Backbone:
C-alpha cells in the first residue's frame, strides 16, 4: 500500500473545506445584505421623492428651513441616484424634482467636504463618486479640484473627472478638457462628445488648436467646430481642407457640410477631384447635406468615381432627392454608361424605401 | 528489487498527476481572484457611467449587427426583435439566411416586410453563393441576405461583413436574445478608447426557462434543470472567473460568437472569418492576437466585460450537451495546433504565457489527465496497491479545490450582477459541491469524443437537436 503525503493532503483538504464553507456562507449573507441594502436605498429615494414632491406642492421659496432632512442630509450615492436617475427602475426623478433636490442638497460646507473626499479618499470609488458629485452639483468653484483629478495617474479617476467637468459647462471647464485632449491620446472621442453639449462660445478655445502638430487633434477640432455650429470660424475649417493629412481634410469637408454655410460650395466642388477617395466621399456627403437637391448638379459627375464608396454616396443623395434627380436618372438610363444606369436604377429603388419610411 | 522499482515508478506517476493538479489549481485560483477584483471594478465603472450621454451623443460609434441564421424558426423572431429594441442611436442590422429549410425566412418576412433590393455586392470575404438581397420596408436599417448553405457559420457572417458599412461589427447568434442596453453598455466602453479596442465581448447567460415575448424578457425564471444550472455555473466560472482575468492582462483568447464586437478594419485586414475550422470565433480571436503581435506599437486590446448583454439557448440534455462540447473540443484542438508557435513565444506577451498554457494544459490535455488518473486508480485498485485513505484525501482535494474556485466566481458574480435571486444562487452553490460526481464526467466524455472526432479530422458544425419552445 502506497501512502503519498496523505497527512499533508488531508491538511490541505481541511483548509479548503473551511474556505468553501466560509465562501458559501459569505455568498448567502451577501445576497441577504445586498437585498436589504437595495431596499434601504430604494426607500431613501422614495423618501427624497416625497420630500421634493411636498416642496413642489407647497410652492414655498427654497431655503434651509423648508428643506427636509431626507434631501439636505442625503448621501453622495443618493445624490448621484437622483441627479443621474441611474436607478430609474426603482424611482424616477424629473428635471424639476432634480433641481429642487440639488438646491436642498448643495451647500458650501458640503461642497468643501466633497472636495476633500475627491482629493484624498483612500477608496478610489468613493473618490470617483465625490468627483462626479462635484460635476452634477455644477460646482464651478470645484474646477481646480477636478483639474487635479483629471491629471491623476489613475485612468479611471481621470475618465470620471472628464464626465464631471462635462457637467460644468463653463469656458474654463472646456479649456481644461481641451488641454487634456491636446496632451493625451486617450478619451479624445469622449471629450469631443462632451464638448459638443457645451455653449458655442467655447469655439474660440477650440479653434486655437486648429494648427496643432497632432493630426488627430486637428481632425477633432474640425469636427467639434461643426458640432458647436461655430460658423464664424468657417475660414479656419476651410484652411483644414488643404491639410497634409487626408483624415483632417475629410473631417473638414464633413464639417463644412454640417455648418450649412453655402459659400463653401466652390471649395467642396473642388475637393470632389481630390486624389484621396476619403476626401472625395466626404465632399459628396457634405455637398448633399449643405445644398440638398441643389447639390445633384455638382455631384452626379462622381457617378464615375473609381471608389465604390463615393458612387454609393452619390446614389444615396439621388435617392433622397429623387424628384430633382429624375432628369439625371433619365439621362443615365438613355446613355451607354452601365455603371450610371445601375446607379440610376438603384437610386429609384432606394427612393421608394426612403419614402415609405418617411411616410411612416 | 522489482518492488523498489515499482514503488519508485508509482511515486513518479503520482508526482506527475499531483504536479499537474497543483499547477492547474493554482492557475485557476489566480484567475478567480483577479476576476473577482476586476469584475468589481467593471461593475463600479458601469454604475458610474453616463449612459444617457453616450445615447444622446451625435458621436456615438455606428455598429453593424450581423445575425447569421440557419433553421432558426424557434428563435429568430425574438432574436431579431431584441436587436431592433436596442437603446442605441446608430446601428444597421444584416441578417444572413444561410439556406434555411424551415420557416426562418417566412418569419423574417412577417416581421420585416421584405422586398428585393438591387445593390452592389462585393465579395471581400469568402461567403458562398448569395441568392438575393432584401430590404425591410418598415425598418430601413435592416438588410437580409439570402444565401445557399455550405461555408458554415463563417461563410454566413462573412456574407454579412460584405454588406457591413459601420466602424464596428457585432456578430450575434440567432438563438441569442439581447438585453435592451447591451450595445449601449459595451459601446460606451469602446468609446473610451476606440483606437486601441479592436475586439470586445461580454457575459451572456442561458435563456432556458426565461419567458420571452417579442424580444423582451417578460419573466426572469431561470431553469432548475441541473444540466442547465450546471452550464450557468460553468458560464459564470468561465466569463467572470477566467475571461475577465485574461482581459485584465490583455490575454483574451476568445470572444464568443454569441455576442462578439470587432473593429471592421481589423476584420478586413484579416480577411474575415475562416471556414477551415469547426467554428469561427476562437480561431478568429487567435488570428487577431497574431495581428496584435505584428502591430505591437498600436497597443491593441481585446476586452471582456462582465455586463450581462443577452441570453442564449443551451443544450437541455446530456446528449445535446455532449454534441455541443464535442464541437468546442474539436475547434480548440484545431486552433491550438494551428497556432502552436504562439506558446511561450515572447512576441505574444501575456497571451503566450497565460492563455496558451491554460488552453494546452486544461482544454487540450486535461481530458487525458482525467482519464489517465481514472486508469491509475483502477490499476492500483486491481493490484491491491491503492491506499484508500490517500485516494479519498486526493479525491476530496480535487472536489474542494474546484468548489472554492467556483464559489469565488459565484461571489464575484453576485457582487457585480443582480441577475439571479437568492434561491437560485443557493442552488448554484449546492451544485458546486455535486457537479464533480456527474456533470464533470459528462463533460469529460464529451471532450473525449471531441478528441476522437478531431483525430478523425471531422470539422463539421454539428448542431444539436433544438427543442420546441413553449408558447
Residues:
Amino acid at each position: 500500500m502506497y501512502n503519498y503525503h496523505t497527512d499533508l493532503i488531508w491538511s490541505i483538504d481541511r483548509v479548503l473545506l473551511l474556505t468553501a464553507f466560509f465562501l458559501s456562507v459569505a455568498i448567502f449573507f451577501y445576497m441577504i445584505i445586498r437585498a436589504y441594502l437595495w431596499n434601504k436605498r430604494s426607500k431613501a429615494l422614495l423618501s427624497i421623492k416625497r420630500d421634493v414632491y411636498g416642496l413642489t406642492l407647497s410652492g414655498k421659496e427654497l431655503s434651509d428651513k423648508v428643506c427636509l432632512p431626507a434631501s439636505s442630509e442625503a448621501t453622495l450615492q443618493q445624490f448621484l441616484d437622483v441627479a443621474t436617475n441611474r436607478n430609474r427602475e426603482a424611482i424616477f426623478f424629473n428635471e424639476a424634482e432634480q433641481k429642487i433636490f440639488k438646491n436642498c442638497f448643495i451647500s458650501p460646507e458640503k461642497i468643501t467636504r466633497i472636495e476633500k473626499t475627491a482629493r484624498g479618499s483612500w477608496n478610489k470609488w468613493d473618490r470617483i463618486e465625490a468627483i462626479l458629485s462635484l460635476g452634477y452639483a455644477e460646482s464651478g468653484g470645484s474646477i481646480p479640484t477636478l483639474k487635479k483629478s483629471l491629471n491623476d495617474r489613475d485612468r479611471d479617476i481621470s475618465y470620471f473627472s472628464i464626465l464631471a467637468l462635462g457637467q460644468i459647462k463653463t469656458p474654463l471647464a472646456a479649456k481644461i478638457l481641451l488641454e487634456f485632449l491636446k496632451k493625451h491620446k486617450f478619451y479624445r472621442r469622449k471629450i469631443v462628445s462632451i464638448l459638443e453639449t457645451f455653449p458655442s462660445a467655447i469655439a474660440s478655445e477650440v479653434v486655437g488648436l486648429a494648427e496643432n502638430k497632432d493630426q488627430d487633434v486637428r481632425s477633432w477640432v474640425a469636427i467639434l467646430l461643426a458640432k458647436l455650429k461655430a460658423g464664424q470660424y468657417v475660414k479656419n475649417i476651410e484652411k483644414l481642407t488643404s491639410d497634409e493629412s487626408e483624415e483632417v481634410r475629410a473631417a473638414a469637408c464633413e464639417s463644412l457640410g454640417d455648418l450649412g454655410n453655402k459659400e463653401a460650395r466652390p471649395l467642396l466642388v473642388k475637393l470632389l477631384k481630390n486624389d484621396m477617395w476619403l476626401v472625395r466621399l466626404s465632399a459628396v456627403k457634405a455637398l448633399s447635406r449643405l445644398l440638398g437637391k441643389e447639390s445633384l448638379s455638382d455631384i452626379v459627375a462622381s457617378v464615375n468615381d473609381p471608389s465604390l464608396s463615393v458612387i454609393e454616396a452619390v446614389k444615396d443623395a439621388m435617392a433622397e432627392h429623387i424628384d430633382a434627380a429624375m432628369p439625371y436618372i433619365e439621362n443615365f438610363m438613355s446613355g451607354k454608361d452601365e455603371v450610371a444606369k445601375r446607379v440610376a436604377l438603384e437610386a429609384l429603388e432606394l427612393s421608394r424605401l426612403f419614402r415609405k419610411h418617411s411616410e411612416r | 528489487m522489482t518492488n523498489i522499482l515499482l514503488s519508485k515508478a508509482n511515486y513518479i506517476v503520482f508526482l506527475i498527476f499531483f504536479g499537474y493538479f497543483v499547477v492547474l489549481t493554482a492557475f485557476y485560483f489566480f484567475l478567480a481572484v483577479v476576476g473577482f477584483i476586476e469584475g468589481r471594478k467593471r461593475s463600479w465603472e458601469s454604475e458610474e457611467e453616463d449612459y444617457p450621454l453616450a445615447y444622446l451623443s451625435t458621436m456615438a460609434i455606428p455598429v453593424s449587427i450581423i445575425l447569421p441564421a440557419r433553421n432558426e424558426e424557434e428563435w429568430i423572431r425574438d432574436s431579431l426583435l431584441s436587436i431592433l429594441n436596442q437603446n442605441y442611436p446608430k446601428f444597421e442590422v444584416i441578417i444572413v439566411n444561410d439556406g434555411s429549410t424551415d420557416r426562418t425566412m417566412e418569419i423574417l418576412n412577417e416581421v420585416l416586410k421584405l422586398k428585393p433590393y438591387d445593390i452592389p455586392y462585393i465579395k471581400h470575404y469568402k461567403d458562398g453563393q448569395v441568392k438575393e438581397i432584401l430590404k425591410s420596408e418598415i425598418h430601413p436599417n435592416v438588410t437580409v441576405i439570402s444565401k445557399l448553405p455550405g461555408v458554415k457559420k463563417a461563410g454566413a457572417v462573412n456574407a454579412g461583413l460584405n454588406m457591413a458599412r459601420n466602424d464596428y461589427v457585432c456578430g450575434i447568434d440567432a438563438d441569442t436574445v439581447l438585453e435592451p442596453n447591451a450595445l449601449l453598455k459595451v459601446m460606451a466602453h469602446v468609446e473610451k478608447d476606440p483606437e486601441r479596442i479592436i475586439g470586445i465581448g461580454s457575459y451572456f447567460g442561458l435563456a432556458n426557462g426565461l419567458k420571452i415575448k417579442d424580444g423582451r424578457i417578460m419573466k426572469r425564471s431561470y431553469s432548475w434543470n441541473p444540466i442547465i444550472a450546471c452550464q450557468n455555473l460553468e458560464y459564470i466560472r468561465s466569463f467572470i472567473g477566467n475571461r475577465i482575468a485574461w482581459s485584465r492582462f490583455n490575454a483574451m483568447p476568445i470572444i464568443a460568437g454569441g455576442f462578439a464586437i470587432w473593429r471592421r478594419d481589423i476584420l478586413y485586414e484579416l480577411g474575415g472569418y475562416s471556414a477551415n475550422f469547426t467554428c469561427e470565433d476562437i480561431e478568429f480571436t487567435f488570428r487577431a492576437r497574431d495581428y496584435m503581435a505584428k502591430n505591437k506599437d498600436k497597443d491593441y486590446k481585446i476586452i471582456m466585460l462582465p455586463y450581462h448583454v443577452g441570453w442564449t439557448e443551451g443544450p437541455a440534455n446530456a446528449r445535446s450537451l455532449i454534441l455541443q462540447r464535442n464541437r468546442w473540443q474539436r475547434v480548440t484542438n484545431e486552433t491550438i495546433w494551428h497556432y502552436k508557435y504562439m506558446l511561450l513565444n515572447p512576441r505574444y506577451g501575456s497571451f503566450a504565457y497565460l492563455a496558451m498554457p491554460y488552453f494546452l494544459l486544461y482544454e487540450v490535455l486535461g481530458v487525458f489527465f482525467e482519464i489517465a488518473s481514472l486508469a491509475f486508480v483502477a490499476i492500483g485498485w486491481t493490484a491491491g496497491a491503492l491506499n484508500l485513505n490517500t485516494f479519498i484525501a486526493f479525491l476530496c482535494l480535487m472536489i474542494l479545490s474546484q468548489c472554492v474556485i467556483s464559489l469565488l466566481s459565484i461571489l464575484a458574480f453576485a457582487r457585480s450582477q443582480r441577475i439571479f435571486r437568492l434561491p437560485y444562487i443557493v442552488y448554484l452553490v449546492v451544485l458546486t459541491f455535486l457537479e464533480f460526481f456527474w456533470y464533470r464526467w459528462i463533460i469529460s466524455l464529451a471532450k473525449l469524443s471531441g478528441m476522437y472526432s478531431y483525430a478523425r479530422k471531422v470539422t463539421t458544425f454539428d448542431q444539436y437537436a433544438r427543442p420546441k419552445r413553449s408558447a
Q: What stands out?
A: Chain B touches chain A through 61 residues (CB under 8 Å). The mean pLDDT of chain B is 90. The longest strand of chain B covers residues 301-312.
